[in-house]
Design brief:
Blueprint lengths: L2 E8 L3 H12 L5 E3 L13 E2 L9 E2 H15 L2 E3 L3 E5 L5 E5 L4 E9 L3 E3 L5 H5 L5 E2 L2 H4 L7 E5 L3 H11 L4 E5 L9 H8 L4 E4 L2 E7 L6 E6 L5 E5 L2 E4 L3 E3 L29 E3 L11 H22 L1
Parallel strand pairs: 1-2, 1-8, 2-5, 8-19, 10-17, 11-12, 11-17, 12-13
Antiparallel strand pairs: 3-4, 6-7, 7-8, 9-18, 14-15, 15-16
Helix pairs in contact: 1-2, 1-7, 5-6
Bound molecules: NADPH dihydro-nicotinamide-adenine-dinucleotide phosphate.
Length: 308
């Protein structure tokens, strides 16, 4: 028998937990499917210094642990299973996990996040958290006064690079082509910045360093020549993949695969809401995700009241 709930939440990052906190306090008895690796992207980061309320840095895993405990104390039912299938054709919506657990929901909040793409180099994996990062806003401050590289040529790469010029000594953008994908406005901002340097037509062969990043070895794709560039940090900005595959085309997505919402976290299906990185390719911050997790829960509550 499927577990029948007023609200089911999928995800276990700041958006999902915040939605759960608001839903449980509204008396909606939410069920949260958190995936096998609970905690979202923050569970894999180190110090978080930009989440309000923590005068001393808190680690990503600790922050997520606190959010989970807060949910548990308030009475949220948390199931650490991965949702593989949903049917959103009509309410109640059905949800099924890879382990075969089933639930029915009058309202559904999707907060499954997005995963940063990496280059796939063994040296990149080995040095992640030791100078390799996919989040300039989160980790840039730890590279104060150092020289760093940003990999990519899109808006994220340039935004990250511009952000990093404020804290680091020098930022080198390394792009695999000689033409940026970033918007003209972003390019304008970046081009005049004296702290930015550019390496065109180059791919990363290896990130150098034993216990911490000391540089990168880049290969010129036109000449085939390799050279080493010293730097203390490498920021990977080659895009994100929103976790929407399990929706199987049942919600309207944008060209990048992000769930389309109307500014109030409402999706193309009435009764289904989305919050956090799965619907936000722009800000991707714990605090903005938490904010729209709250909006999604308030909108779900409003929706259920209007249906009653
Ligand atoms: P994009 O997909 O736009 O850009 C990814 C970049 O990474 C491209 O330049 C791509 O190169 C490069 N890349 C991809 N894979 C590799 C690889 N394996 N090795 C080397 N380079 C690689 O992603 P973004 O995250 O930049 O942006 C996503 C969306 O969010 C966009 O729509 C963007 O406009 C938007 N955005 C808007 C912002 C704003 O307006 N302030 C800020 C941030 C994002 P290539 O160009 O050769 O394909």
């Amino acid at each position: 028998m499927a577990n029948s709930r007023k609200v089911v939440i999928i995800g276990s990052g700041p958006a999902a937990y915040t939605a759960a906190i608001y839903a449980v306090r509204a008396g909606l008895d939410p069920l949260l499917f958190g995936g096998v690796m609970m905690g979202g992207q923050l569970a894999t980061t180190t110090d978080v210094e930009n989440f309000p309320g923590f005068p001393e840095p808190v680690t990503g895993p600790d922050l997520m642990d606190r959010m989970r405990k807060q949910c548990e104390r308030l009475g949220v039912t948390i199931v650490p299973e991965f949702v593989s299938k949903v049917d959103l054709s009509k309410p109640p919506f059905s949800i099924e996990t890879t382990e075969g657990k089933k639930a029915l929901a009058d309202a559904l909040i999707v907060a499954t996040g997005a995963d940063a793409r990496y280059l796939g180099l063994p040296s990149e994996t080995r040095l992640r958290g030791k100078g390799v990062s996919a989040c300039a806003t989160c980790d840039g401050f730890f590279f104060k006064g150092k020289e760093v590289c940003v990999i990519g040529g899109g808006d994220t790469a340039l935004e990250d690079a511009l952000f990093l010029t404020r804290v680091t000594a020098k930022v080198t953008v390394i792009h695999r082509r000689d033409k940026l994908r970033a918007s003209n406005a972003m390019q304008e901002k970046a081009r005049g910045n004296p702290k930015l340097a550019w390496v065109w037509n180059a791919i990363i062969e290896e990130i150098l360093g034993a216990d911490a990043v000391t540089g990168v070895r880049v290969k010129d794709v036109k000449t085939g020549a390799s050279r080493e560039l010293p730097c203390g940090g490498v920021f990977i900005a080659v895009g994100h993949t929103p976790n929407t595959a399990f929706l199987a085309g049942q919600l309207k997505l944008d060209a990048g695969g992000y769930i389309e919402t109307d500014g109030r976290c409402r999706t193309s299906v009435p009764g289904v809401f989305a919050a956090g990185d799965v619907m936000d390719p722009h800000y991707r911050q714990a605090v903005t995700s938490a904010g729209n997790g709250c909006v999604a829960a308030l909108e779900a509550e409003r929706h259920l009241a209007s249906e009653a």
